[in-house]
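Lab manual, section 2.4: Encoding a predicted structure.

Procedure: take the sequence of the chain (466 residues), apply the prediction step described in section 2.3, and record the output as structure tokens. A sample record is shown.
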Amino acid sequence: MSSRSLSRLVTGATVALLAPVLSFVVAAPASAAELTGSIVVSVEVEGRTAPLDGWQLTLSSANCAVPTAATATTDSTGAATFDDLTMFADESSTTPCLYDVEQERRDGFEQDTDDAELTGLTAGTLVPATTSGIAVASASGVFVNPTRNPEPKGNVLDYKCLTGNGTSEVRSGWHPFWRDCSLAPQNQTGLGFTASPTPEGEELPLGESTVATLTHFNQTILRGVHNYDLVTSFTFADRATGQTQTVDRTYTVRIDETSDSGSAADCKYQGADVPNASYACADRLILEQPEDSVIDLGSALVDLHLSFGRMLPDGTCGATGDAAYTAERANTEFCLIAVTEGVSSVAPTAVTILNVADATTPGNSGLVSPGKPVAPTEPAGTTGPTGTTKPTEITEQTATPRPTETTAPTTQGGATAAPAAPERTTSALLATGGVLQPWLLAGGLTLAVGGVLLLALRARRTSTTD
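Recorded output:
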């Protein structure tokens, strides 16, 4: 199994597979230190109608580098995003990068969101994948470039009786006694490739899965082929979108032919998994891999470092490895195993900044706090010589003819009772709900006092003449 990193992660909510004219959204980073995320800021205003666009934001970090675009401006919805932010400060994925967001203050508003809520922000949260979402829509493989290994003495002999070169099944080998091509194909040695597409409606499971079957036709022959290039083509499909990507990879299958005579104890390879027989030794198969076998499918990574897994009678695969052994005079099937790993996505960090209109700022006078009294309006008046406004004069009502006076009532002691004083002018004003200015109140009181004195004098004159 490949030791290359299948733990690589990729960001982005959009996943696309490609045909020849398409491309993946983003290549998976090689390490956690290259994993990136984003911070989404939403600006809101409260208290009065105001545009949400144009709010200036600045990003900073104490332990990680900040992208060139360290400033952002909100759009018409009040949103701004800082992208391509490194998530981890080291390769171990244990030290997160921490970021601070600062909003430029705007006249007429106070920031209601505390600055502490905008500090120490991460660039997102890893969301582990639970499925791959990927399937092998189709696959094929053909064998090309047949060669033989040198003989023990260094001679390089041609292979004989080759058939099927350039197809998914190849055969070769002279008749061991007649040394001609009279052997039937099923009695020749060779290799076969059979693709294993993902069943309709299913997807590749996370972990190991069979992507093809390799069969070694191991028969007793002379001058057979030792090495073939296996040229494969895998078409992967995204089950969610239906988009596809075709990946071509070439592997080399090497067959180490061993002695066809002797005892099992003398065979070249020994072990519990080596099927040596008393009449012939087991052959050994080796798969040589391309240098880069990890395929980035956006939502999943598939390691096409193929491994042998012996096909068991129940149709499952046994332990896998880069080498396998086959018994003489038998056809042995192997599962070709690939490893699929789901790609963790990154959910962006989201923060909201609330701004409240400042009622003390000019232009915000319409904002009145509950319970705040409204300033009274001064009564209308005329303009005096100096240009100042004089209060409207209060005039006495026009006198009406008095009825014939009757004798004033007397008190129990015989004194004449004083007539009731007329209602004070100020009472009429107060009854209207108006608010008297201090100078008006003083003037009214003066007039009232004068009226009382005048009535008192008249009553006194009346009492002396009667």
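Check your result against the sample. The helical segments are 425-431, 438-465.
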